[in-house]
Amino acid sequence: MAALLEAEGLTAGYGATAVLHGLDFAVEERGVTALLGANGAGKTTTLRAVSGMVRTGGSIRFAGERLDGLATEEIARRGVAHVPDGRGTFMELTVEENMRLGAYTRSDRAEVEADFERVFGYFPRLRQRFRQQAGTLSGGEQQMLAISRALLLRPRLLLLDEPSFGLAPLVVQEIFAIMRRIREEQGVGILLVEQNASLALDFADRAYLLETGRIVVSGPAADIRQDESVRRSYLGY
Amino acid sequence: MEGLPHQIVAGIATGGIYASVALALVMIYQATHHVNFAQGEMATFSTYIALTLIQAGLPYWVAFVVTVAVSFVIGVVVERVLLRPMHDAPVLAHVGIFIGLLLVISNLSGWIFDYTVKAFPTPFDTGAPMLGGLVSGHELGSTAVTLAVLTLVYLFFRHTSLGLAMRAAAYNPVSARLVGIRVGWMLALGWGLAAAIGAVAGIMVAPVVFLEPNMMLGILLYAFAGALLGGIDNPAGAVAGGFAVGIIENIGGAYLVGTELKLTLALAIIIAVLLFKPSGLFGRVVVSRV
Ligand SMILES: Nc1ncnc2c1ncn2[C@@H]1O[C@H](COP(=O)(O)OP(=O)(O)O)[C@@H](O)[C@H]1O
Ligand SMILES: [Mg+2]
Which residues of chain B neighbour A90 with C-beta distances below 8 Å? Predict the structure, then answer.
C-alpha cells in the first residue's frame, strides 16, 4: 500500500538560498513520522514545502495526488492541516472564531458541531475560553487552539511544528497525551517536527534525522531510540 | 435652519457619507496596508452609472441596486487585473498605481459623461423641513440609507462565515491560507465591497454637492481625516471618525472658518492626528502573549 505522504528528492529554499537538498521521506496512513534535527536543520522548511509555502523541487505525493505546485490553500482543502511554527493564532479574533476558521472549508454543519464537542473533550480549557480574544491565551492554550483549528479541518494528514516549543514540561506532557488519543481516535497521519527528540521518538513510529537540509539517519523510531551512537552524535541525550 | 442643532444634524448627514467612504478606505487598508486614493473617483464613476440608468428610465431604487452591484464587480475586477500582479511591489509603486487610477477614472468620467456639473435626483421628500425644521427630507433619508449600509456591513463581517474569512485573511494571511481560505479572492471581495459602499455614498451625496468628475475629491479628504481620527486599522473607529468629522466640519464651517475654508479643517485634523495620535482615537491595541 502506498504511503499517505511521500516526498522524493524534495528541495526547497528562500529566494536564491537552497535549504533542503533532496529529501526522501514518507508518512504512513494513520502513522506518525518524526522529523528531528538541530535548530536551523530545515525542519520547518520541510513542513512549509509540504504546505506549498516555499518554492520547491522534486515531488510530493499525498493520497496518490501530486501536491507540489499547488497553492497553500488548495493543499489545506485536500486534507493537510498545518500547525505552524509560532502557532499561527489569529490574535485579534476570539477562540470561537479561530476554531470556526478551522472548519471554514467544510459544509457538513452537524458534523462540525460534533467535532467542536470532540475537540472540547480533548481540550476542556478551550470551552472556558471560548469567547475570549485568542491573543490573551497562554502559550500552552494557544498550542491547544492551533491543534484544535487543525483538527476541525478534518485532515487526513497533520503537520505539527514543534508543539512543545516554549511550554512548561507539564503542559507538554498534557499535549502529547492528547495527541496519542487524537492519533487513535481521528485516524489521521502525523508528520511531527520536534527538537525534543526523546519525546518525539516515544510518540513516532518512523523517524528521520535532518542535518543542514539532508537526511542523515532514518528508520523505525524504536531503532533510532536504541542506537547509542546516533543518540550521542545527533540527539544529545 | 441655521442654529447649532441644525448644524449638528446636517453634520451627521454628511458625516454618514464620510463614514461610508472612511469604511471603504479602512477595509482595503486593513487587508493591504495601502490607502486607495482612487476610492472617491471610483464612487463618482458609480454615481454617473446610476444617473445614466435613471435617465434611461429605470426606477430610482432599481438603478440604485444595479449600480451597487455593478460597482461591486468593477471593484473586484480592478483588484484582480490591476492590483493583483502588484502584490509584492513596494509602497511607492502602489501609491503610483492609486494616483494613476484616480486620474484615469476621473478623466474617464469626464470623457464619457462630460465635465458639466449635473443635478442628481433624490428619492426623498424635498418639501418642507422635517422634525420641527431641523432636517431636510434628503438629509434624513440619506442618513437612514447610510446607517442601513453600515449595519449590513457590520452584520456581514460579524455573523457570516465569509465575513469571518475576510477578516482572517486581512489579519493573518499565512494562517488563513493554512485553513484553506483563498486569500487572493478575499482581497478582491474586499475591493468589491469597498466599491459598493463608495457607490452608495456617491449616490447619496450627489443631490447635495452635484455631480461632476471631481465630486468626491473633497469628500475623500474628509473621509481620510475621519479614518485617521478613528484609527485607520479599525472599521468601527473609522465610522465614528467619519461622523465626527462631518459634525466638526459643519460647526466649524458655520462658526469658525466659514464655508470657503472648511476643507482646511480636514487637513488640520489629518495633521493633528498624525502628529499627536498616529494610531487614531480608537486605534486597535491587540493584546497578545507569546
Ligand atoms: N523566511 C526565511 N527566509 C530565509 N531563510 C530562512 C527563512 N526561514 C528559515 N530560513 C533558513 O533556512 C534554514 C532552515 O531553517 P528552518 O527550516 O527554520 O530550520 P528548523 O526548523 O530546523 O530550525 C536556516 O538556515 C534558516 O536560516
Ligand atoms: Mg523550526
Answer: 168, 171-172, 175
Q: Would you say residue B210 lies in a domain? A: yes
**Residue B113, C-beta contacts closer than 8 angstroms, at least 6 positions apart:** B48, B51, B52, B213
For chain A, the residues whose C-beta falls within 8 A of a C-beta of chain B are 51, 53, 71-74, 76-77, 81-82, 84, 88-93, 97, 100-102, 104-105, 133, 135-139, 142, 149, 153, 166
In the 8-state DSSP scheme, what is residue A205? S
- In a domain, residue B274? The reply is no
Is B224 domain-assigned?
no
- The Cα–Cα gap between B105 and B108 comes to 5
The predicted-structure confidence for B93-144, as pLDDT tens digits, reads as follows 888 889 999 999 999 999 999 999 999 999 998 776 777 677 888 888 999 9
Q: What is the distance in A from the centroid of ligand 2 to the CA of A43? A: 6
Q: Are B9 and B243 in contact (CB under 8 A)?
A: no
Please indicate, yes or no, if residue B127 is contained in any of the structural domains: yes
Structural domain boundaries, residue B167: 4-216
Ordered structural domains, chain A, with CATH: 5-86+153-235 (3.40.50.300)
CA gap A12, B210 in Å, rounded = 58
Domains in chain B, number: 1
Nearest to A104 among B172, B179, B284 (CB): B179
Residue B19 confidence (pLDDT) above 90: yes
> What is the longest distance spanned by two Cα atoms in chain A?
52
Q: Which residue blocks in chain B are alpha helix, DSSP H?
A: 4-32, 39-55, 60-78, 91-113, 137-159, 161-171, 173-178, 183-209, 217-230, 235-255, 262-276
Mean pLDDT of A52-69: 95
The CA distance from A79 to A99, in Å, is 16
What is the DSSP code (8-state) at residue A134?
Answer: G
Angstrom distances, CA of residue A231 to CA of A139, A223, A234, A235, B280 = 29, 11, 6, 5, 56
